[in-house]
Amino acid sequence: MSTIINALKSNLPEGAILTGESLKERYYHIWKMGEPLRAKAYLLPRSTEEVSKICSICFEHNQKVIVFGGLTNLVGSTETEGDEIIISMEKLNQIEELDDRSRTMTVQSGVILQKIHEVANAKDLMFPLNFGARGTAQIGGCIATNAGGLRVLKFGMTRAQILGLEVVLMDGTVLSSMKKIIKDNSAYDLKQLFIGSEGTLGIITKAVLKLREAPKARSSAFLGFNHYEKVVDFLKYIDRGMGGSLSGFEVIWKDSYKVMTGPDSSRKPVLDYSYKYYVLVESLGADHELEHSKLQNLIEKTIEEGRAEDAVLAHSEADLEWFWTIREDVKVLAEQTKFDQHFDVSVPINRMGSYVDSVLEKLQASEDVHNAYAFGHLADGNVHFIVAKHNSSDELRLWINDIVYSPLEEMGGSVSAEHGIGLHKKEYLKLCRTKEEIDTMKMLKRNFDPKGLLNKGKVLDV
Amino acid sequence: MSTIINALKSNLPEGAILTGESLKERYYHIWKMGEPLRAKAYLLPRSTEEVSKICSICFEHNQKVIVFGGLTNLVGSTETEGDEIIISMEKLNQIEELDDRSRTMTVQSGVILQKIHEVANAKDLMFPLNFGARGTAQIGGCIATNAGGLRVLKFGMTRAQILGLEVVLMDGTVLSSMKKIIKDNSAYDLKQLFIGSEGTLGIITKAVLKLREAPKARSSAFLGFNHYEKVVDFLKYIDRGMGGSLSGFEVIWKDSYKVMTGPDSSRKPVLDYSYKYYVLVESLGADHELEHSKLQNLIEKTIEEGRAEDAVLAHSEADLEWFWTIREDVKVLAEQTKFDQHFDVSVPINRMGSYVDSVLEKLQASEDVHNAYAFGHLADGNVHFIVAKHNSSDELRLWINDIVYSPLEEMGGSVSAEHGIGLHKKEYLKLCRTKEEIDTMKMLKRNFDPKGLLNKGKVLDV
Description:
The structure is a homodimer. Chain A is α+β, with helices and mostly antiparallel strands. Chain A is built from 16 helices and 18 strands. In chain A, strands 15-12-14-13-17-18-16 form a 7-stranded antiparallel β-sheet, sandwiched between helices. Chain A starts with a helix and ends in a 14-residue tail after the last helix. At the A-B interface, strand 9, strand 11, helix 8, helix 10 and helix 16 of A face strand 9, strand 11, helix 8, helix 10 and helix 16 of B.
């Protein structure tokens, strides 16, 4: 047995290290669950101290490590090559405290997002971060990737929900700032560096989450538009009119909507297929009557004044469920063909309409593309594409990447609004970051991880 | 004339550099305007390129620089020793774009905060950052110090309002990411490092600000309480009840309130002096009738249910003005004696009541202290103290510091909620940051400013 495995075995409790035969039981491999897991060992620490011990040992032995959270990322961040040691956070899964007076929750990084929702809700509090994979995603991964999701418009990205953070550096140093305070301008806010750095600068072991009072009322409407300018006008109109309670403003382009409510889906359409853009708005508030009538009045005026072509208000919990599952279940788009390619780009809101038109038109002109589907968080300037294609050739993949990514540089957009860079988008980073920025990032990576052992090859090549 | 001054003169336009006699015209010195400005030269760049040129020349000549914004900081951040060159941002004062569709404003760093408010408001938009010194503070300084202020509860600190940032490093490198997009997870979010680092890592030259639709309705109430627990209960009650429109929750302790509404002030009291805590709440919304009646109903219930001792609702613009100028004009507290000492600390909300009681009691027991005044942003866990004292001895100053700061470590508080560390709080940083954190900060400082020339001696001693 290798020296490093021996060193780990003698420093970790029984059961915390899987190797050889026991490793084969774990067929984790993101999006390819049928393949065996390739790694030297799979570690299951239960405390910050164990993570720190593992890191010191690996640092001393020049051993590469990969950190596993809930494996829900979409950019290849947890792919292994076989010579890594995997540190899984799944046993670091305790909620250490819920303080309903300070409105904070102190958690270990392996806690599942949905569990956080449930525990907060039981105290009439809310943790606003929310997305489809909430039943699997771990909070440590959400923080490491600065996850976005469905309510960024009102509550911000994960970054805005984090008060305290504990991180283990590759040499075993523990950087801990687990404070329950909302404002802290005591020198550099180090946690900001780790949030969104995809585990390449340090390993998140704990966090203090900011909670909000749980909203008691949720209202929604579904609208149809034929002109992008009118969609943006309506965003401004409804946001101003709702006075800060607008929490969602999702747009689904026509072809996506047809599939999401068509024969391959279990959902019937809310509006017919006459429109180019389908907009789903949500507001969160305290009083159902009041929020609902506020939204109803605005929607009635919207139609009267010709601001939208058509609109339907959700009148029941069942309607809310119907409207939102249409938007949330995007799997049906990916299932249109055997092969699919996903995008998550940001563009300034005022330029999104023409950009999406142009991308869809170019992709639809290819014989290798079945169709291209667009939908997204318009209020955040974030559009997702799912391209359903007929083959998985590298040539086609790169051609599609080029069509989606190449306009972004001139527009001041981003190749990743919320999914991150991981392994798959590294070569496109230069379209949205300058040489000086990338050099600065590399300087940071070299200082935090001087031997280049932590999630090597992800985000940056140093 | 020295080499460095010659080098600067030959690289900058006429009028951009003041030295010798022309320097004497400038009697800037924070809080001591009567003293002459001590510096080798005072530079007035008008572009990022000029700032970059200045930095390269100073870097080459090992010349220390100090950056001047609006000079409204409270922690000695712009004090000079005489051998520095001052870079003033006052001529970098252009608003480059207001995009009312993407809801962004692109500004140079010398633009005054109040100007930003005015320009946004003219387009029915709002930049939510707001505090007393808005007529003097420059946006670059607000960003460099991650300023807080009166509406953090609803909108977050300055950090939450910044989409893009341009920074010049000490060697002249320009790090520019002036994007108008709301979500950008394309590798490390470098701007977060500069926000709140008080100008010690780089010089902010431009920013893209996130704007919001301007609220049309503002409501307020003034309440009296005798028990801290009830204040926290009421925060939760009103926040939940208002459904997200609560934008301010300020607390004034009794002795502060008596001075702020007493004979030395031009404001009459809203409530009499029977209570221990005076709470001022604000909500922002779209519809005045609706917001006002929502707040009125909750305040009526609050009194009926014995949640507060007494309450008064603002019924007019004049009432709003009256309530809020009581809170905003804290000068009257500092003017109670010749000498005063200011504090800005964070503590977890559930521990603030007993902490403030204990600090006030200890300070009031001293013969050298006239009185100690507490007020603050309770919903943010942020309390300010102004200590009115009879002498300016170092001994008294350090004794007072000790009483305010020493309990913070055990409570997980911060010596600076929003004002920063600057020169005055450096020695107390260790009470709220671990050795590992401070070592990491120093590593960052050494990498961004290897010669230690930029705002030397501020925040950290490297």
